[in-house]
Design a protein that fits this description.
The chain contains six helices and five strands. The protein is α+β, with helices and mostly antiparallel strands.
Length: 169
């Protein structure tokens, strides 16, 4: 029995190892060198202090392997983070990405919020990744249909009359 992990998860695990010990650097580079690339948001193109100011009210407790998770991020704050080029926008694995999947839905349904994680300073890149959306309230029929239709391909989906949440790996 084996465990299959995505390139995205494998990359994040390798980057976390680098923050703990530099001796993993050569192993990481050898492991992911030919696994396919993705553009990263580097510290040189980002105002880290502004990014943290915008995200601070939405962070969960603690940092895990150089990642800090957030929930309940409103659409207007997400739009501002995007305007400063802080958010990873492109597709990954089975997710169409922020630009094609999450933003259109959130603009149609601004009462939903985003959740995901921010790569912290000191890592190779300090991107923000949106992993899904959620809402905890009585949902209208239109919201239920829009959510179920839009996120039918999510890795995880919870949907009841008063709760909706999706998550992409």
């Amino acid at each position: 029995m084996g465990i299959t992990i995505s390139h995205r998860v494998r990359t994040d695990i390798c980057e976390a190892a680098i923050t703990i010990s530099r001796r993993f650097l050569m192993e990481r580079n050898a492991t992911v060198a030919n696994a396919g690339g993705r553009q990263t948001l580097t510290t040189t193109t980002m105002n880290y202090e502004l990014r943290e100011k915008l995200l601070e009210p939405y962070y969960d407790e603690g940092e895990y392997g150089g990642l800090r998770y957030f929930t309940c991020l409103p659409t207007d704050v997400l739009d501002e983070l995007i305007s400063h080029n802080f958010v990873e926008m492109e597709e990954w694995n089975c997710c169409d990405g922020v630009a094609k999947l999450f933003l259109p839905f959130l603009h149609r349904n601004p009462q939903f919020t985003a959740h995901g994680y921010a790569v912290m300073e000191g890592r190779e890149d300090i991107r923000i990744t949106i992993e899904g959306v959620a809402r905890s309230a009585v949902l209208t029929v239109d919201e239920l249909i829009d959510f179920a239709t839009t996120f039918r391909g999510a890795d995880e989906m919870e949907l009841t009359a008063d709760y909706a949440r999706c998550w992409y790996d």
